[in-house]
Write a structure and sequence with these properties.
By secondary structure, the chain is an alpha+beta fold. The chain has a domain of 313 residues: YVTN repeat-like/Quinoprotein amine dehydrogenase (Methylamine Dehydrogenase, Chain H). Helix content is 22%, strand content 28%. A hairpin with a 7-residue loop joins β25 and β26. The longest helix has 35 residues. The chain starts with a helix and ends in a 6-residue tail after the last strand. Pfam families: WD40. It is found in: Nucleus, Nucleolus. This is U3 small nucleolar RNA-associated protein 18 homolog. Part of the small subunit (SSU) processome, composed of more than 70 proteins and the RNA chaperone small nucleolar RNA (snoRNA) U3. Belongs to the WD repeat UTP18 family.
């Protein structure tokens, strides 16, 4: 074809392609200008890059899927099922699993728009298996034997309760605990727990964490009603005896307790509340000990026997036992009892025929004698060691001055036929007098010095037999009273409310028996008492933090 004809054919084709007869015109619109060559190249680059990235991503997914299938080829079916339950079905898209693990855990509330089918599927996601078989014995309520256990036997209310179900036993244990604690303690009540739900409580917590110091403190005064205490190992557990315990006393400066009895021995034990290891025992041949006590400084132990005028003094520093066969100027043949003054200067010996004698603690020589009408039932020093209180067999109380040895006052103990015991508080506030009828009268010391007929502040009538032992604790918050004529006849009186603690003694246990002696540790952390069975029972008082 000639060249001119070929050019004409091309022009005709271009005219047919664009009806408007102009090059570059769109269908049904105005003609457009041709884009420059550099702009056409720049638009082509993003399309090529996106295509390359898509190809690379598909290739990476294919390789990851092949590797995962290779790893899971030997994996058990159970493990694959478990992974599917935990992580979901991510066979086709592992990125979904990664996005799920990266997102924070939030509590998702149930959507109210969910259909019933979806809710039922959620509930039945983990189907519960039915038991293969049922044992009829499992459905029967198991019974607990109450007779062959000494602890459960005390919880029986009548003889027909030989067996109790577990639920009934649990209720009975709960009742026993609440009775011992005087009710439900605060920590056991569910509504007492505080939940920091508002901004105010959160601010309090932040303030608490920003400060340092001791946040645990005890009440300054002992509360009445329930005395929090724990039964410890017997003080003389490492040296058991069956003879009556006549004296139990804590050392005034060391964590040591002394136990003496009618087995002719004085023993010292270290107090730890767990094993109470024995330190030393001193045996006095043919000398059943009626009373023993420490000196005020704790360097000596004094021991006296029944119906004997010999007084043994054991020097703890030198380790020597010194017998005092005769006191210069003292003509007494029988020494009934003795007391050591709180300041450690005097020794008061109760004789016969109403005489009591004042000795020098250092030299053991007689300073002077005093006499009352009738026989001397008991005597004690005041807290400042300047006065002596003596209770007579006629029910009268005498107050003597130590320096002048003159009688300052004399009064009748209200309602008493004859006295058995007397004690003074260490703060100089109270005088307690125990009588044969089981009544303990508590007087104000000032009224005992000034009035001829003082009235007791309170009469404690919780005992029905003669009160033979009275002891104030060092803080004058507890008065221990006991009678050796009746088992379990011991009470702890709260001061100044003059009410008896309801949880002591535990009558159902009946392990105290007849009490002959009592004492508190120097800071009231422990309380000990001795009985006729040779046991020195010891209790830890939780209100007091120190020994």
């Amino acid at each position: 074809m000639p060249p001119e004809r070929r050019r004409r054919v091309r022009q005709d084709r271009k005219t047919q392609a664009r009806p408007d007869g102009r090059a570059g015109a769109r269908w049904g619109g105005p003609p457009r200008k041709a884009a420059p060559s550099c702009q056409r190249k720049s638009l082509a680059w993003p399309r090529a890059a996106a295509a390359a990235i898509s190809v690379a991503s598909e290739e990476e997914k294919r390789l990851r899927l092949r590797n995962r299938l290779t790893l899971e080829k030997d994996k058990p079916a159970v493990e694959r099922c478990l992974e599917e339950l935990v992580f979901g079905d991510v066979e086709d898209d592992e990125d979904a699993l990664l996005r799920r693990l990266r997102c924070p855990r939030v509590q998702v509330q149930e959507d109210s728009d969910d259909s019933e089918v979806e809710k039922e599927a959620k509930d039945n996601f983990l189907p519960q298996k039915k038991p293969v078989w049922l044992d009829e014995e499992d459905e029967d309520e198991e019974m607990v034997d109450m007779m062959n256990n000494r602890f459960r036997k005390d919880m029986m209310k009548n003889a027909n309760e030989n067996q109790l179900s577990k639920d009934e036993l649990q209720k009975r244990l709960k009742e026993e605990f609440q009775h011992a604690m005087g009710g439900v303690p605060a920590w056991a009540e569910a509504n007492k727990w505080k939940t920091p739900s508002d901004d105010e409580s959160e601010e309090d917590e932040d303030d608490l964490l920003q400060r340092t110091g001791n946040f645990i403190s005890t009440s300054t005064s002992l509360p009445k009603g329930i005395l929090k205490m724990k039964n410890c190992q017997h003080a003389n557990a490492e040296r058991p005896t069956t003879a009556r315990i006549s004296s139990v006393q804590f050392h005034p400066r060391a964590q040591v307790v002394m136990v003496a009895g009618l087995d002719n021995a004085v023993s010292l034990f270290q107090v730890d509340g767990k094993t109470n290891p024995k330190i030393q025992s001193i045996y006095l041949e043919k000398f059943p000990i009626f009373k023993a006590c420490f000196s005020a400084n704790g360097e000596e132990v004094l021991a006296m026997s029944t119906h004997s005028k010999v007084l043994y003094v054991y020097d703890m520093l030198a380790g020597k036992l010194i017998p005092v066969h005769q006191v210069r100027g003292l003509k007494e043949k029988i020494v009934r009892s003795f007391e050591v003054s709180p300041d450690g200067s005097f020794l008061l010996i109760n004789g016969v025929a109403g005489y009591f004698h004042l000795l020098s603690m250092k030299t053991k020589e007689l300073i002077g004698s005093m006499k009352i009408n009738g026989r001397i039932a008991a005597s004690t020093f005041s807290s400042d060691s300047k006065k002596v209180y003596a209770s007579s067999g006629d029910g009268e109380v005498y107050v003597w001055d130590v320096n002048s040895r003159k009688c300052l006052n004399r009064f009748v103990d209200e309602g008493s036929l004859y006295g058995l015991s007397i004690a003074t508080s260490r703060n100089g506030q109270y005088v307690a007098c125990g009588s044969n009828c089981g009544v303990v009268n508590i007087y104000n010391q000032d009224s005992c010095l000034q009035e001829t007929n003082p009235k007791p502040i309170k009469a404690i009538m919780n005992l029905v037999t003669g009160v033979t032992s009275l002891t104030f604790n060092p803080t004058t918050e507890i008065l221990a009273i006991a009678s050796e004529s009746m088992k379990e006849a011991v009470r702890l009186v709260h001061l100044p409310s003059f009410t008896v603690f309801s949880n002591f003694p535990v009558v159902k246990k009946k392990n105290i028996s007849l009490v002959h002696t009592m004492d508190f540790s120097p800071r009231s952390g422990y309380f000990a008492l001795g009985n006729e069975k040779g046991k020195a029972l010891m209790y830890r008082l939780h209100h007091y933090s120190d020994f």
